Amino acid sequence: MKLIFCILGVVIISWNCKKEIGPQSIFPEGKGTGELLVINEGNFGFGNASVSVLNSESGTIFNNQFRTMNGVGIGDVLQSVNKYRGKYYFVVNNSGKVVVTDTTLKLLFDIQGFNSPRYIEFYGNKAFVSDLKQGGVYVVDITTNRIVNQINTRGWTEELIMFNSQLLVMDRGYYLTNSDSNNIYIIDPAIETKTDSLKTGINPNSYCVDGNGKLWVLTSGLAGLEVPALTQYDLDSKDILFQFKFPSSRNPNKLRFSSQNNRLYFIDDSIYSIHTNGNEQIPQIFYSRKTENFYGLDVIQGKLYASNAKNFNQTGDINIFSLTGNFLKKVSVSHIPSMVYQK
Amino acid sequence: MFRNWSKGSLVLFSFFSIFARGQQTDTLRTFEVSESLSKLKSFSSIEFTFDSLSSQSMDELLEQSPIYLKNYGQGQLATLSIRGNGASQTQVFWNGFKINSPTLGQTDLSLLPTFFLNSATLNYSGASSVNGSGGIGGSLDLENKLFWKKGVSANYGKQIGSFSNSTSTIGVSFGGKKVVQQIKLLTKKGENDFEFQDLSQRGNPEVSQRNNSLFQFGGQYEIGAKLNKKNLVQANVLYFNSRRELPPIIGAVSNNEVQQDNSLRSFISWKSFQQKYMTDVRFSYFNEELNYVDSISSIFSEVDVDTYQGQVRSTFKLWRSFDLETSIQNSFSRVNSSGFIEKISRKEAGLYVKISEKLSKLYYEVFGRQELIDKDFLPFVFGGGLVVKPFQSKLKLRGNISSNYRVPTLNDLYWDQGGNESLLPEKGWTSEIGFDYELAKPSKSKENKKESLWNAAVIGFYNQTEDWIQWTPTSFGYWTPRNVKQINNAGVEARAAYSRITSTCNINASVFYSYTHSKNNSFSEQNEDRVGKIPIYIPSHKANATITLKREHLCFVYTQIYNGRVFIDETNVTYLPHYFPANCGISYFNKLKGVKYKVGVRVINLFDEPYQVVANRPIPGRNYSLSLSLAL
Lengths: 343, 632
What we know:
The structure holds 2 protein chains of 2 kinds. By secondary structure, chain A is mainly β. Chain A contains 2 helices and 29 strands. Chain A has a 4-stranded antiparallel β-sheet with strand order 4-3-2-29. The longest helix of chain A has 16 residues, at 2-17. Chain A is globular and about 60 Å long. Chain B has a 22-stranded antiparallel beta barrel. Chain B has a 5-stranded mixed β-sheet with strand order 1-6-7-4-5, with no helix packed on it. Chain B is globular, with a radius of gyration of 25 Å.
């Protein structure tokens, strides 16, 4: 009987001691300050997406800030964030939702009903949300926070750009193969209708508009059919103004533009750069990769932020460079950092 | 090529068969009828047996051992982790034939109802090498044994539980003088729409699990025939079909995913018992299909595997207590997978030899295994162990050391895109040292031989696995497997058991505790963040305790489980907290007009503890099951 009482005693003590449920973090708790948000995408199916706050000057980082503010995680696979009218709109891909917070990251509400959302842009009282699997762009009324319409496309809609009151939508085709013909649609956001389109190379992955209003598109190509390419288009005539073709073995992605020095930056294992004036025929090496696994790239106020996701199943870091290529700092963040965003 | 290989195998088998038949002298009953290779006695293992009235599932039983069970939720994927190794490093054998999927490299325990089995032996050390390689961590040996009971007997079981779960079983056996046959049928279904705390929403509201229903059915036919006093044939055909929905993780959208598994497993064995040796010639055929459908994402994945295996096992009593055991194995697998460009096949051949001798105070055993996969010889596997009784008492000291390896799965080698044909096998070695102690207090009563019995064992282990295979990202946008790391595991396991039999009451109590210090020792790529860290989903502490009280026709069982904290990322900054669930049950058994019956009720997760075994996969709170078993 003594044995039974001993075991029951251990049961009761341990039962009462238990407080934590579900995934926990050993990051120090507490609210932090900084001028940048770091989006930690997290592992698919792990629910470990998170938001960090970064002070780029001091290199001080505060992880898990969404959970710190709200007591819950943000969801599964945090894809992107955009700010509009004093609110942050976090697009949480595998949770099929957009999480809306105030500028202190306090949760206000969720917008539900998306299939596999990716990016968000705004026009008036509307938000436009791209989607991996839905074959279209959602239109959300941000006064009621409900999906009110869908503008159909051929397949996977990815990055969105609002340019001259027109919404540019990248369509990557059927998301499992990327083998369809690919387009960038030009949508009039007021009437929620496609007004024009531009046929790109196979499988565009990122794009941006330069200081002269020209469109630069980075395509991944498809083995045996087309090599990856960086292409400059005239948005009105659709003419190709410049093109650089990569060897078929390459995988260039995350094209970004700096208005400060009119240069483009992208990841292709290492980080490369090219001027938008067309005088450089070949992208220049900006930072030669050592062991990093660069997964995100952002240019903010004269600095370049390269996110290193490492092995994906571990915490990553943000490498900060000046636009001239000087390495400034490395900051440890959470799991799969993919985006740095100015608050 | 297959024809040449199969021809070679047949010649080999024929030789052994002729050898076996050529020396018929006297019949010996010293060989165990059901097992043609003996277990490694100096290595740690636990055996679970199932009778016709038992209703426990495989994962419930294995929770009562030192190993860590990784369970994705009720009715969902359940795998084993042994002493710091993962699910792929654990081999599962069915009647001596390897059943780990050649594509995934692991076995889902939720697809193995205990109703179709008679025993399961968990080898959580180097003893996994008896049946084949690959069990770097250990193995689970599932067995069907023949019971020579004359006449017709039958058993029926019905279990109903929370969340619309129900299981029905029926078994009928026909025993004659020379032939015994048995048919078993099972159906199982459940909605599993249990409520849990949604940790992704403010206030953690209670929500119901979605897309989590299960439907399984299966049937088994067994036959055993004594050809004469020295020859026995045993055959078994098992069909099992499982359709289950796959729920989303907490806070994610449901894609209404469905997984369907169909398996047909069969084997035939011919055992010949001679005075100084026995031989077992055996063949098996397995067909396994796995279909995964995510209609929202337009993913339709299909895998169809045919596996043929042949073995000749022989045991020789050479002189006094010096024994020799040999096993020659061949297998051929052919896989049609939507993840491969073309059909893939794999041929394996292996030779196992073991010698053992039992002396008055010493038992020793030494074994070696050589395998050939397709055209490549793999590293030679060897091991050995000792059991010493130094003081003629109930104290046994034992120790062992062995090597093992695991070849890459077919998905690792040929998956399109990412498959890496230049992968090396994982190599590992394990060692153990410890003692077992047994103290019996004799009874004054003539009916019971022992009144009380104490058992205790403490064993320390150290194992190391090199060239661990892990899928890693590439710069081309897809993932590929690589031999990335070496891990070391050291630990200690302690077990104590007490049983007491009185004229009115039986008490059995047992406690297990294991401590595992596991760490990533080195990485092939420079990655200082992960070196020295604990691999994911390996608890440092695990314990369980079980108490069984029997009084007349009543039986009460209480089980307490403790699983320590596990890290869920390789930099060890996120973890799942420890959990401490308890189960209990009470049953009444008796006999009425020749029919044995048992009525029971079980309470699972008695204290309604909310916990997760796998991150964001909820486990049901307190739930109940009622069972009725009849045997005549």
